[in-house]
Specification:
Rossmann fold, 8 helices
Amino acid sequence: MDKVPKQKKEKIIFDSVNFFYGTRQVLYDISATFYSNTLTAITGPSGQGKSTLLGLLNCMWNEVPNTRCSGDIQILLGGQWVSPLRKDISLSHLRRKVAMIFQEPNPLPMSIGKNMAFPLKLAGVRDKYLIEEKVHTALEQAFLWEEVKDRLEESALNLSGGQKQRLCIARALILEPEILLCDEPTSSLDSKAAGIIEELLVSLKKDCTLLVVSHYLDQVRRIGDLVMTLENEGLTNFKERSS
């Protein structure tokens, strides 16, 4: 397992972050630094705010009623420090650069090819050849191209569970995010499909910074350069994973 690079480059900084759903507090004074081109595994019991922590990075909770957050978060995007809490970056640009993968794969009810092209078209890309090139590249990155290259016109809903999750990862990668947030991305998959996803996530460190929520301690040991543990109403451990 690769270790944190000796020349650490800060990518995400949490500074005394607290988060509340109404009167219920789920994050307690979180201060932590995440580094570029590393994979941080975030673990701990259910209900300790792991998914909430991920969602703060791309404003997933902005529209949820009666939520509030204190403290600060800084993210280095395009060489500039921005804060999703202060909204000094547009939501559309933030979510292109800070992509998210969920527990259940969520392909759109359309063809594999159209699923892949959809984010590009939303971003205003119209060049057919550029779209084809980017679709090919992202599917290669997601270890999926060889399995679907002759099926791009078929419905994405016909894919297996593991293929659907890799399609969702490829769809996120097509906009070249700097950060990839993964909320228990293998929990709905069998062991073989989960192993492919693990290998894929580790391979993506060369291109982006990853934060991966996982309940599986064996998975944390396999893929994490750093381990962040949330439990007992706070951050109890945040350090480089032992070999």
